[in-house]
Amino acid sequence: MPTPIARRIAPSILSADFARLGDEVRAVEAAGADLIHFDVMDNHYVPNLTIGPLVCEAIRPHVKIPIDVHLMVKPVDRIVPDFAKAGANIITFHPEASDHVDRTLALIRDHGCKAGLVFNPATPLAWLDHVMDKLDIVLLMSVNPGFGGQKFIASTLPKLREVRARIDAWRAGGGREIWLEVDGGVKADNIAEVAAAGADTFVAGSAVFGARDPDGGYRGVMGRMRQALAAV
What we know:
With 232 residues, the chain is an alpha/beta fold. Helix content is 31%, strand content 17%. An eight-stranded parallel beta sheet has the order 1-8-7-6-5-4-3-2.
């Protein structure tokens, strides 16, 4: 029998209630989240300003699951050590925001974190051609980065299939595991379609934090997502 595919749900705290952030991350972990997704925007690479290493450090004691830091910043290298020190486990960045992509990937891994590249909807995948050996994760944006609550861009699906084919070929040639993550507009009613296209890690922001249970938890929405994934 084929090995079951591990599928991970990563609630994005961009949509959480920041006045009670510790409670929010504990609640999604209790609901079965596999990662905490942490969106870093600098009002330079993207037109918004969010959170930095101090907030990462503040939530680290509240959860045992990995913190998945998505850097929407330019330049990248200066901030990588700060997030590693703050407790990040995964750090991804946009290749066009780095002067030396290979060097930045090595920097992230040298600081003890998993490293990955992020591709905007119109960013070509050619960046992957020479760095597969340094990747732990590929993240495809299914919205244009900068704001939460956007609608899923359907053209992400064939792009997901293309990256899945690249990863599978890499693994077949003896390469190590590379996760395929998708971020933007993912919710319970489309997560199965996204999984069928090849994704194994799913960022969901407003779809999770906008669907709080009456007791303040998130077991309902997380359960619906798991049920949809189980049917794929």
